[in-house]
Amino acid sequence: RRALLGTAGATGLVLGAAGGAVGYAAAPAGATPLTALGSGRAMFHGKHQPGITEGLQARGHLVAFDLVAGAGRKEAAALLRRWSTTAERLMAGEPAPHDDTDVARDAGPSSLTVTFGFGHGFFGKTGLEKQRPAALDPLPDFSSDRLDKSRSDGDLWVQIGADDALVAFHALRAIQKDAGSAARVRWQMNGFNRSPGATAHPMTARNLMGQLDGTGNPKPSDADFEKRVFVPASGEPAWMANGSYAVVRRIRMLLDDWEKLSTTAQEQVIGRRKADGAPLSGGAETTPMDLEKADAKGDYLVPLNAHARITRPDRNGGAAMLRRPFSYHDGIDADGTPDAGLLFICWQADPLRGFVPVQRKLDRGDALSPFIRHEASGLFAVPGGAAKGEYVGQRLLE
Ligand code: HEM
């Protein structure tokens, strides 16, 4: 099974025993034995929703919905119940409850995860303003933002990930059909990561700039991992116990400009070596970065504006987040530039102690800023996992 074979997932997470929240079970016994990839299975029920601490999947769909006029709390509760039933079945490798399309027939669950979140607008439309967490207050404007509002925000957000493109599409289609007359798609984004098994050994994934991306992520074995990523069981509001906040940013990479830089110049931008992710202060990928180390001329080996120096938790009052992205490529623009980059998704117990302070710092300009452009944004409250017999969000909606 992939999840147990891989020790260092692309998020830099150690999977299996160390990740208490990561529940993988044996694939259901079927007539046809599945490959290791197909039989990978994440659990729908648990303390946390799936799709947060698991290793990166090869395919992803992010889709936001708006409740239609007239749909309120009752319709939303029925929708979350339908979505939860569908997610549970598909994640077990079973067909959708109604009118299955056969698209995932023959395939195993392929590590499918389906994750549900609520956006700021959801609470007004369902009469639940009092339950809206303060942490869902809109993100501040950043001076470098170039946001397309029609591809930002949304009342409801669904993240789908799987190691097989057809399994992921199958889930997307089932989720969209379940929305019925209650909610309409606001935007959708499609992403990908390296396929499991493509490298000789499990390693941190590369992004479309070619860098190892995920090295500095908090690890499930860190003593403060849960505290950083998840709302505590005693947290406020009570329905968000064991939940997390997802910040989603569609970040275009200006690849034509980036690729003109020499490898040395690219390494100065990040502060890490491109080939193996090691800090420019020396060592291997996981060697702690030495921020004080300088060359004979007295210049810091990790430049002052290097992305990996500026984003460090110890430079941001301890602000930390779990980055779990997908890359995207949506074709070539009329001017010949690729519409490609990162569907940046980061998870934290509180965006004001995660994404916001770090992005404020980056917005003042790090060495990476000239090569990227934030084009869409969302912030979603992702409740804790559903217990057996419960649907996701039930503690808010019942
Ligand atoms: C680290 C790339 C945007 C937060 C890194 C690293 C790379 C990278 C290569 C070093 C390896 C690693 O630790 O993962 C990118 C690219 C981006 C981007 C290509 C945009 C396309 C952002 C944004 C944020 C962010 C928007 C948050 C506001 C971080 C953090 C670290 C990091 C927290 C780890 C710092 C540490 O723990 O030492 N990024 N990044 N990045 N980045 Fe980014």
TrEMBL record:
Q: Which InterPro entries match?
A: Dimeric_a/b-barrel (IPR011008), Dyp_perox_C (IPR048328), Dyp_perox_N (IPR048327), Dyp_peroxidase (IPR006314), EfeB/EfeN (IPR006313), TAT_signal (IPR006311)
Q: Give the note describing cofactor binding and stoichiometry.
A: Binds 1 heme b (iron(II)-protoporphyrin IX) group non-covalently per subunit.
Where is this chain's protein located in or outside the cell? Cell envelope
State the signal peptide span.
none
Predominantly, its location class is other
Q: State the source organism's domain of life.
A: Bacteria
**Classification via SUPFAM superfamilies:** Dimeric alpha+beta barrel (SSF54909)
What reactions does this protein catalyze?
Answer: heme b + 2 H(+) = protoporphyrin IX + Fe(2+)
Keywords on record:
Heme, Iron, Lyase, Metal-binding, Oxidoreductase, Peroxidase, Signal
EC numbers, comma separated: 1.11.1.-
- A Pfam family of this chain: Dyp_perox_N
Q: What does this protein need as cofactor?
A: heme b
Q: Where is the Dyp-type peroxidase N-terminal domain?
A: 49-193
Domain Dyp-type peroxidase C-terminal residues, every copy: 204-386
Q: Which family does it belong to?
A: Belongs to the DyP-type peroxidase family.
Q: What does this protein do?
A: Involved in the recovery of exogenous heme iron. Extracts iron from heme while preserving the protoporphyrin ring intact.
The protein's name:
Deferrochelatase
Can you name the source organism? Streptomyces achromogenes
